[in-house]
Design goal:
The protein is α+β, with helices and mostly antiparallel strands. 31% of the residues lie in helices and 30% in strands. It contains six helices and twelve strands. It has a six-stranded antiparallel β-sheet, with helices on one face. Strands 7, 8, 9, 10, 11 and 12 form a six-stranded antiparallel β-sheet that branches. Strand 7 and strand 8 (106-115) form a beta hairpin. 29% of the residues are buried.
């Protein structure tokens, strides 16, 4: 939540930030009424671990999706008990659920790599992450795969013109997010910003990784990384 607080200081970023609150039964119930789909996860990310999707069904019952396990027709008390067994961390958050764009039946999200080798933030990489079959998270530790940005979006059905506009938007938002965080955390030099892409193609900032893992083989990313670590 500390990083989110920094991002919220930039009014240009606010429309692209899903509503996020600390977990409590009251907050969970209210968020589900407002959004019908939410994600409950640790406040401090753990590579996609312990991320649970909770959905309010039209009949007033609840559906829970964790890893590849789905439970439906649950009461709210049953959902609370389920989450208590899964989370087991000091602080959890409830985040507005975004109905993600998909490749076949697997949700995707986007990783924007941003580096500051000198005095200016630069977007140095764009990738698509695809969740493993049956899973809701795209992290590599959870079986997700990385694919080329344009290829991944083409597989998700986005037209070329929309991809061009989206690329410009992601670069703009990524650099603003980096600048906003840099005001609070002056030592930052590399970031990985994860964006959700909803079914209308609108980007949402899901998470910012301050110690991102970069895919090897990109000459500019590798060069900038060497400059940063050797300063």
């Amino acid at each position: 939540m500390a990083k989110l607080s920094a991002l919220l200081q930039d009014p240009e970023l606010v429309p692209y930030l899903p509503e996020t609150v600390f977990y409590s039964p009251e907050n969970l119930e209210r968020m589900l009424k407002d959004h019908t789909l939410v994600y409950v996860k640790p406040d401090k990310g753990r590579g996609g671990e312990r991320v649970v999707a909770v959905q309010l069904n039209k009949d007033g019952r609840y559906r829970v999706h964790y890893k590849t396990h789905i439970q439906d027709n649950m009461t709210f008390d049953a959902v609370r008990a389920y989450l208590a067994g899964v989370m087991q961390v000091k602080k959890s958050i409830v985040q507005q659920g975004i109905k993600l764009l998909r490749v076949k039946s697997s949700p995707i999200d986007l990783r924007v790599h941003i580096q500051k080798p000198f005095n200016k933030w630069e977007v140095t990489g764009l990738l698509v992450k695809i969740a493993a079959p049956g899973k809701i998270v795209t992290n590599l530790h959870s079986g997700g795969t990385l694919v080329n940005f344009k290829e991944g979006l083409a597989r998700a059905g986005l037209k070329r013109r929309k991809v061009v506009k989206l690329t410009d938007k992601l670069i703009y938002l990524g650099e603003r997010a980096a600048a906003a965080l840099n005001k609070k955390y002056s030592g930052l030099r590399e970031l990985g910003v994860d964006f959700a892409l909803d079914q209308e193609g609108r980007p949402w900032i899901l998470e910012v990784n301050t110690r991102p893992q970069f895919p090897k083989g990109d000459k500019r990313v590798d060069q900038y990384h060497r400059i940063i670590v050797n300063k």
